[in-house]
Amino acid sequence: MRFIKTIPNIVTLGNLYCGFLSIGMAANGEFKNAAILILIGMMLDSMDGRLARMLKADSALGKELDSLADIVTFGVAPSFLVYYTYFFQFGILGLIVSGVFPLFGAYRLARFNISPPKSSLNYFIGVPITAAGGIMAILTLFGDLIPSIITTVVFTALCFLMVSRIRIPSFKEVPLPKYGTIVTIFLGSVLYVIYKGSYGPFPDLIYIAIPLYIAYLTYRFIKGKNKKEID
């Protein structure tokens, strides 16, 4: 029984480990794989909170662990990915600029953590770091088709949008994991990359994560639908 209670934290740690692996792969020049690992981390992030509620395993430790994982996987990892794929040509200045992304993301996370619980029921204040990191990963995944200037503009915009006061709908009442739109784009991106078949080997985790996550999406949809019928 105690092991079941730790499952959400294990999923969160999986998210963190994806961020670490992404940084390592980016450093080795495997940029597509690095981007995919960030997106896998995004999938895991969308699961841990719901798993904690399903298993009645919510805890202060889990919330702190989630924030630490998010800053690595969706803050530090995307910034390294952008640096190695584009900003490296500007030398030390490019490294400094790349480091701004996790700074804004960390501030956004800290602000979210101290906000009243009821304030986040229907909307987020500022773009969530998970969505920002996922967008940067997707742009890198299709880097061959997207001009570098667009990536730079989006990178800069996301930095400021994360700490902005703009209200972003949370879609928590939708019977799918948060950031469902980004997840859908991720699945489409994976199919595209596999179809191209020219980017080298993928992390083995991706062949396990996708079927499991699709099954999870199906379960959440059916459960949400049945709940409405009961009501």
Quick description:
The chain is mainly alpha-helical. It is 73% helix and 3% strand. It has a two-stranded antiparallel ribbon.
How would you characterize this protein structure?
73% of the residues lie in helices and 3% in strands. 37% of the residues are buried. The protein has a two-stranded antiparallel sheet with strand order 1-2. The chain has one domain: Four Helix Bundle (Hemerythrin (Met), subunit A) (Up-down Bundle). The chain contains nine helices and two strands; from the N terminus they run αααααβααβαα. With 231 residues, it is mainly alpha-helical. It is globular.
What is the straight-line distance between the termini? 31 Å
The biggest beta sheet is recorded as: 2 strands, antiparallel
Stated plainly, the CATH topology is called: Four Helix Bundle (Hemerythrin (Met), subunit A)
Low-confidence stretches: 173-179
Mean of all residue-level pLDDT scores: 77
**Structural class category:** mainly alpha
Q: Strand-and-helix sequence, N→C? A: HHHHHEHHEHH
